[in-house]
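Write out structure tokens for DUF1800 family protein.
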Amino acid sequence: MADRDLDAAIAVTRFGLGARSGEIRGARQDPRGFLKAQIHREGAQQPQAGAETAQQRLGEFRDYQQDRKAMKAAQGPNDPRPGHRDPVKMAQRMLREDTGADFTARARLGALTPEGFRERWALFWANHFTVSATKLITATVVGPYEQEAIRPHVFGAFAQLLGAAETHPAMLLYLDQAQSIGPGSPAAKYARRAGRTPGLNENLAREILELHTVGVDGGYAQADVTEFARALTGLSIGGLREDPSRAGAPIFRPMAHEPGARTVMGVRYPAGGREQAGVILADLAQKPATARFICGKIARHFVADTPPPVLVDRLERRWLDTGGQLGEVAKALIDAPEAWAPTQAKFKTPYEFLISSWRAAGGVPRDISVLAPTLNAMGQRAFSAPSPKGWPEDTASWAGPDAIIKRMAWAQSFAAAAIVDRDPGRLASEALGARLSAPTATAIARAETRAEGLALLLMSPEFQRR
């Protein structure tokens, strides 16, 4: 009985995003079945139904670029021509109404979803295939990127997810692939005759190998990066000169593709245009080094910064046995005894802390004006991971003294503003279940106000960790 109570709490607070009222109770009968029921063939939940596509957003960005060019040509914002729009205001609107709304929808989904494991699994893959809003153009499409390239495939074949992520316009723009030109391609020869120097960009090839598939110790060399980058040339995005239906869409430019066969990690790939890159991606998805690298990341995300090797082995075996079927890997994680250890080894990131706080209090974030200042102060700016590696997930990155002070200040202000109509002790029991310790329960019970009791709950060791 006691084990089932603890397992129910772990299912909701470790595998999921934190408990809403009654959720731990609902998982108690069959904690593992509760999680497996959230593995859907159609993938993860979508924050926004009917949202704009990446292609539509890139059309808006194209309009912004044209108006900015027009303003510069007029040498000031007072362009007398009809239809002129201030590009500064356009950029602000795109960030507020597009990117801000995308992130708010994601956070609201996290706060309200009854399928916390399904959402956490999707967020893991979004971080694995990071596209950061560090450029205005990627900021406008990072939300559609998650909806189009990541979420539909998170419980399907890894090869399909890999292909969708790497060829999406957001990734091509973020890692500067859209402008990459093969040095021996017809486009490069034409550029040189015109006095321009074409460039081969290796960013996407390098990050696919180092971060998305085999990992830095996966057995590749710099020559493999260069060869893979040559195979990727031609992958681009429709621009102003394309047919309107192709503007902003992923396209292949044969004139920019480096001709000839390529050899990557000891495998020779014949010439083949777009298909050449696709075959290399498919092979990388099936490599044992890819299974080992990514299963280690899954174990670190869900269980511990230094996960038990036997857990990584379990996940790797299921990956290899099923050809990288991610739904089966998720089931292997749920079935692994090591994933249910009572020790709370993972420290919540700022985003996880905020979402779990809203879930515990029965609330939901209103809009980006509430989310952004807090996440900025805590060091996890919305949609803006500092590098293609994504956000760090280890305790050392988030548990410094200054970070804890900021969490405490936020918890106090959040608790003071929250409408807490339940006894804080009952709230703590529903949020933590069997993980609630006697010292924390006593401290909450002795709180002078409900707001103080809620703040104590949010800053308790049990709540900060999962």
